[in-house]
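Annotators were shown the component list below and the corresponding predicted structure, then asked to write short factual statements about the assembly.
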Amino acid sequence: MIETLLWHSAKIWAVLIPLFVAVAYYTYVERRVIGHMQDRRGPNRVGYRGLLQPIADALKLLFKEITIPSQANRVLFLIAPTMAIMPALAAWAVVPFGEGLAVADINAGVLYILAMTSLGIYGLLLAGWASNSKYALFGTMRASAQIVSYEIALGFALVGVLMAAGTMNLGGIVEAQAGPFWEWFWLPLLPLFIVYWISGVAETNRAPFDIAEGESEIVAGFHVEYSGMAFAIFFLAEYANMLLISLLAAIFFFGGWYSPFEGIPVLGPAFDWVPGTVWVLLKAAFFAFCYLWFRATFPRYRYDQLMRLGWKVLIPVTVVWLVVLTGLIYAGIGPWF
Amino acid sequence: MSFETPDFSLALPEIWLLGAICVVLIVDLFVRGSRRSVTFFLTQAVLLVTAALAITTQWGVTETTFSGHYVVDPLAAMLKATLALLVVLALAYTRPYLEARGLLQGEVYLLALFATLGMLIIASGGSLLTLYLGLEMLSLSLYALVAYHRDSRQAAEAAMKYFVLGALASGILLYGMSMVYGGAASLELAVIAEAAASEEPPLLLLFGMSFMLVGVAFKLGAAPFHAWVPDVYQGAPTPVTLFISTAPKVAAVALFLRLLVDGLGPLHETLQPMLLILAAVSLLLGNLTAIMQTNLKRMLAYSGIAHAGFIVLALAAGTEAGHAAALFYVIAYGIMAAGAFGLIIVLSSAGTEAEQIADYRGLNERHPILAGVLLLLMISMTGIPGTIGFYAKYLVLKAAVEADLIAMAVLAVIAAVIGAFYYLRVLKVAYFDRPEVPPEGSQKPTGPNEGSVGEGEGATPSRPDGAAGTVLVPGASLPIRALLVVNGAAVLVLGIFPERLIALCQSVLGAG
Amino acid sequence: MEQVIFYLFAGVLLFAATMVISVRNPVYAALFLVLAFFNAAVLWVLVGAEFLGLALIVVYVGAVMVLFLFVLMMLDVNTAAMREGFTRYLPVGVVVAGLMLLQLIVVILSEQVDLIGGLIPEPSAEVDNVHAIGQVLYTAYVYPFEIAAVILLLAIVAAISLTMRRQRPNTQRQDVPKQLSVTKEQRLRLVQIDKKNRRHTSDT
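Structure shown to annotators:
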C-alpha cells in the first residue's frame, strides 16, 4: 500500500520536475528565439549567455507581493490559479514519453486529455470574474468563447486520429503508426493535423489567437490583476499546456517515439541507437518552436475573424475529412489502414 | 455479439421525412420572397407524401426492427397518416396570420416538420428510449414555436412557462422510465410487458409507471398537470396554438398507448384509479374554469383540458373499445380545435387579435358563413348529436359504462352539460348580441355583404388589441376561408357518417 | 480502499449539490454544479464506466457549464427577487420531496427489488468500456442514436431561428466578402501636393 503510493508519487514527480524545468527554459528560449527573429539579442546577462535568466525570473516572482484588489472576490481570486494549473499538470499523466513510459496507461487516454484540457478554462473564467475588473472580464469573455469554440474542432480532429488508430490509448495510437515517416498519420490526416495544430494554438491562447490577453487592447486580459506567484502559476499553466499540445502533436500525427527512418534499409539501423524518448522530445521541440515562430510572425486575429475561422472553416473541414477518412479506412487504402 | 442489420425499408416514412427536412432546410436558404411560398408548398407536399407512405408501406404490417426500437403495426400506420394530415391542416392556416405580423419565416415550417418527425417516432416507438427521444423532439420544436413571436411579452412568458414545466415533466417521465428499466432490465416495451405480466411484478415498475403517467398527463394537458395549457394557448401566436392543440394531442394519446398500454398494460388495475382521478379533476376543473373566461383562446384552452378529461376517461376504461374511443376522440378534437383556432386566425388581421369573446358580437350579421362555422364547431364541442363531437363523447361513455365505470360516466355527462353553457354563450354572443358602436375615429361597422375586399391589413393599423367593440375584419385570403368552411363542414359530415373513422380506430386497436 | 474513495466523492457530490440550490450567488451555484458534475464523473469512473465519466466532464463541465457561467457573468442576476417565493413554496416543496424520498426508500427496501448485481454488467477484461459502448451504440441503438442527432440539428435550427433576426437595424455585422473585395482605389486616395506652396516648418 505505502509502496504503491510512493511508487506512484515518484512517477508523478519524475514527470513534473522535468516539466517545470522545461517550462522555465522554454520562456528563455522564447525570448532568445524571438529576439533573434527580431534582430535583437534577447536576455544574455544572467549567467553564461543568459542561461540563468529563468531562475532569476522565478526568484523575482517568488518574492513579489501577491496583491489582491480590494473589490475582488478573495476566495475565487486565489482559487483561480490553482484551477488553471491543476488540469494543465493532470493532463500529463497519460502522455507516453516512450514505449510504456507513462504515469498512467489508461484506455480512454484521448478522452482524458480532452477532459483535462477542457477543465483549464475554469482558471481563466474565475480569474477574470473574481478580479472585478473590466479588462479582466473582457479577457475572460473572449477566452471562454474562443476555447469552447476551438475545443470542438480540436475534438473532431482527434476523432479522426481515433478512427485511424482504432484505439483511445495514446500508446496504442503511436503503435498504430509504426514505420517510417510516411506511414505516420500526418499524411492521411493532413487536414485534421492542420486543424489540430491551429486549434491547439488557439486553445492555449497563444499568438496569433491571443485575443484573450492581447496586451495592446485589453492590457493582459484575464490575469491583469495578478502579481507574484499567482501570476507565475498562470504563466506556468499556459506554458505547460503549450508543451503538452506540442508533445501530443508528435504523438497523434508524427509517430511518437518511432524514428522517422524506421524500416528503411540503411538509414533505419543507423539510427537504432537513439532512444525513442529522444525522438518524441525532438518532434515536440519542433512544434514548441513553431509556437514561438508564429508569435514572431503573425499579427493578432480580430475576434470575429477568430470565431469565423473556428466555426465556419475548421469545423466543416474536420467533418468533411472524417467522411473522407471513413472512405479511406473502408477501402483499406495505403500503408496506413 | 450478434446483430441483425435493421430493415430500413420498414421505417420509410421517417426516413423520407428526415431527408425531406434536410432538403427543405437548404431550399429555404436559397429561396427569396416574403411569402415563403416554395417552403410552404414543399412542406405540405412532404407531409402528404409522408401520410401516403405511412399508409402504403406500413398498413397491415406487424413487425419490429432496429433491435426492437421501432414498431410497425396498423396503429402506427394510422397514427402517422393522421398526424401528418392534421399537421397539413394546421399549417394551411398559418400563413396570413404570420405574414401580417412579420413572423413568416421558413423556420416555422421546419420546426413543424421536426415536430411531425418527433410525433411519427412516438407513433412507432418500440422502446422507452425511442419514445422519450421522440417526445423531446416534439417538445423542443413546440417550445421554439411558442417563443417564435419574440417581441411579444406574452409569447415569451408562455414559452418560458411551457419550457420550464415541460422540462420538469420530461424529467419526471425520464425518472419513471429509469425505474421501469431498473424493474424490467430492458428498454424494450415488449420485454417490459412480459415483466409486468408476471405474477408478482416488481415494485419498481409500479413506481415508474406513476411517474411516467405524470409525464404523459402533462403532454396531454390533463389536470392537475395542466398549468401550462391556458398560458400557452393564450400567449402563443394563434397558428402555433392551433398546431399545439391538434397533432401533439394525438401524439400524447399515442404515447400513452405505447407506454402504458403496450408496455405496462398488464398493470392497468393499478393505473386505473390514478387515471380516474385525472379524468374527474380535468373534467370538472376544465369546464368550470372555462365558464369564467372572457378570452376565447383561454376558454378553448380550458375546454381542451376538459376534453383531455374525456380522453383520459376513455383510457381509464382500459378496454380496447376504450382505447379506440380515446383515439377517435382525440382525432375529433383535433379537427374541431383546428376549426376553432382557424376561425380566430381568419378573423384576426394585422392589428387585431380576434381573441376576446366580446369581439364576436353580431358576427352573424356581418359574416353569416363564418358564424355558421362557429355554430357547427361549438355545438360539436358541446357534443350535440349530428356532429363529430357527439360520437366522440358517446363512444367514451359507452366504453366507460362497459368497463363498469358508471359513476364516472355520470360525472362526465354532468361535466359536458356544464360545458354546454360556455360553448353556447359564444354562440349567443355571435348570434344575438348587437355589435357595439365603435369609438369615434375608428372604422364603421361593416355590413353583412362587404368586408372581404379592400379592407385588409392596411385599413386597420392601430386599433388597440382586443378592446371590446373591435370590429373584426377577416385578414385571411379566400382559400383559407374556404378551408375553414370545409373544416367546419367536416365536423358535420363526419358527425353524420362517422362509421368509417370509428371502424378504423377500432380495427387498429383490435376492438370491434 | 475503493469504499473510502466512493464515500469521499459521494459526500462531496451531495455537499456540492446542496450548495447549488442553497447559495445566494448564482456564479457560486454554477461553480458548485461544476463540482457536482466532476464528482459524479469520478463515481462513474469508479464503477468502471470510464467512458461515460470522461464524456460527462468533456461535455457538461468543459462546454455546457462554461457557456452557462459565461452568460451568468455577463448578466447581473438579481437573486433577491428570485428567492421571493422561497419560503412561501417551501412547505409544498418539502412535502413533494418527502414523498419522493419515501417512495425511493420503499423501493429500495422492498424485498422484490434485487438491486445488487444483475443489472450492472461486470467490467470484462477483454473488451474495454469504450469498445463496448461503440459496439452497441452503432448497432443495437443506432435508431435512438440517430434520433438524438436529429434532435441536435433541431436545436440548432430552433436556436438560430429564435436569435437571428436579419432585419434589426443597429447591429454591426461584418460582411466578409465585402471586406475582402476591397481594392486599393476604394481606400487610398493619392493627393497631389503642390511643391511650391507646401508649408515648411523645419527649413525656412
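Statements collected:
1. The mean pLDDT of chain A is 85.
2. Chain A touches chain C through 28 residues (CB under 8 Å).
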